[in-house]
Amino acid sequence: MSDAAPRDFIRQIIHEDLESGKHGEIVTRFPPEPNGYLHIGHVMSICLNFGVAAETRGRTFLRFDDTNPGKEDEEFVNAIEADVHWLGFDWEERLTHASDYFDALYAAAEQLIEKGLAYVDSLSADEIREYRGTLTEPGRNSPYRDRSVEDNLDLFRRMRAGEFADGEHVLRAKIDMASPNMNLRDPALYRIRHVSHQHTGDAWPIYPMYDFAHTMSDAFEAITHSLCTLEFEDHRPLYNWFLDVLEPEHRPRQIEFSRLNLAYTITSKRKLSALIDEGIVTGWDDPRMPTIAGMRRRGYPAAALRDFVARAGVTKKDKLIEMGMLENSVREVLGDPSPRRMAVLKPLKVVLTNYPEGQVEHMTAMNHPNNPDMGTRDVPFSRELWIEQDDFMEEAPRKFFRLKPGGEVRLRSAYIIRCDEVIKDAAGNVVELHCSYDPETKSGMPQSDRKVKGTIHWVSAEHAVDAEVRLYDRLFNEANPNAAEDYHSVLNPNSLEVVTAKLEPALAELPAGEAVQFERLGYFFPDSRDDAPDARVFNRIVTLRDSWAKLEKQALQGQS
RNA sequence: UGGGGCGUAGCCAAGCGGUAAGGCAACGGGUUUUGAUCCCGUGAUUCGCAGGUUCGAAUCCUGCCGCCCCAGCCA
Q1: How many Å apart are CA A358 and CA A378, to the nearest integer?
Q2: In angstroms, how far is B13 C1' from A256 CA?
Q3: From residues 482-511 of A, which are strand B contacts by CB within 7 A?
Q4: SS3 A60
Q5: Domains recognised in chain A with CATH numbers
Q6: Nucleotide nearest to A211 (CA to C1')
Q7: What is the Cα–Cα distance from A78 to A85, expressed in whole angstroms?
Q8: pLDDT (tens digit, 9 = 90+) per residue, A4-42?
Q9: What distances in angstroms separate CA A150 from CA A113, A118, A414, A462, A468, one per listed residue?
Q10: What is the pTM of this model?
Q11: What was the ipTM of the complex prediction?
Q12: % pLDDT > 70, chain A
């Protein structure tokens, strides 16, 4: 285990700490506040914390940082547990809450008071802000800063007893109001909040602040490496101050790494819930959401998410990672195991004029062209078929090797057909194609290897199963929507397109929870909420790579 | 203008004084009954910039520039 090369600076530190004997065992924690759903950014933290411990046979706690009742909710704790499990990690018996330590935290606060390192301040929130100074000017001491230990103890105990109203007093650390680090200008330790807590009920009228609760919780759990994101970098001196003055048995070390930002998405909880409230998406698990719940419903495999963050790496540099990177991981893990099927998203009718009316053949199609072990299936074939509208062009460029008037194309796993006649409606829209098939070219027959440039997918009209298919695209048109003043202005209005597709019959039997490749189109996944055996609903997980679409796009750009 | 961080290819990222790994993307080519997959091949005379130290610098020093974070009784 220790001979494996460390892959990033945090693993290097951990490796050294193990080598030097500083720690016999690595203990980490993933500490979400249960005030929202976990998103792609959290995936990074989860994989890092659980990963680093697993690699060294250490342990990881799942700890709910529940020190701010009112914002937190049981719905979120359940969702978080489900998401972490789904991602593939297990905290075993190590499920804790910052609120589990409220008694110990309270005792530590009294110790601080007794040491003369904390005091009860009776300034209002506004006054405290004024006294704090600014980034360039030092703060001033509160007039209550020199209260005696006895007074402070008395006041704090009465705060705990519920004698004061919200906001009347606050317990502060006594550090340095002139520190250039704002976090050291007598940070608040406890505030009064007469609200019930989702885990401790009405037991407490006062609640500890993040810095205090987090540091001491880490110490109580004997966390060796407390891994967090860059914005906490200048909280580290405060983190260490608590450890220095309180001298707990265990001394955790905080190390910061950069957040993972995905291009074209937002992760701010406020904005994510606004998307839901405004009806732009349907909920936290909308398949367009960057939440774990959303990505799971979309059909992204957990392994793809793990692979993606592993490739992104752990560093201190701000990241804005391209979608293509995530999509690559998704395609890579879906490629081998997903069975292939045929489905037509935007149907165009084809009539094979020389094919006997009423005849049905059963074509044998491979479930995976690169893996014969996955077997074959029967696909019914008849005189009338559906093909993709995009697979026909009346006036096609020479590079278009699909169906065009007078041209030939192979129907996958079936015959080669020729387009003889284009049928249009009064408005001039193509509504139907009359084609003829070449009986000598049936898949598997001796003559079947006749070369034609293109192969397209199809579904027998008579046997087709209708299904709702949801085609998702990015939610935003701007690579960094976080930077936009108003995210509404950068919303992608076409992030969802719903079509009624024609499926080959075998697709009606696809089990829920299993991804499938619709050949030439992409990977699809039965929707966990709306899919039903007699009314299938599929989500498009991701398209296939499409070099034709790329060419078309370039041609379009060349014209304009 | 105070403090804390970060700058290696379009996006990520190795590198830790000995002469710029790798992945994604892009671009060529081969295989292919998915324009998919797979396979080959192509990118940095240079590491934000400018000096300095050194036989030798992305790595050490100095200065400058750019970007991010901090003034919650949020986390």
Answers
A1: 18
A2: 18
A3: none
A4: strand
A5: 9-257 (3.40.50.620), 262-339+467-559 (2.40.240.10), 343-457 (2.40.240.10)
A6: B75
A7: 11
A8: 456 899 999 999 999 999 999 999 999 999 999 999 999
A9: 9, 12, 90, 88, 71
A10: 0.96
A11: 0.96
A12: 98
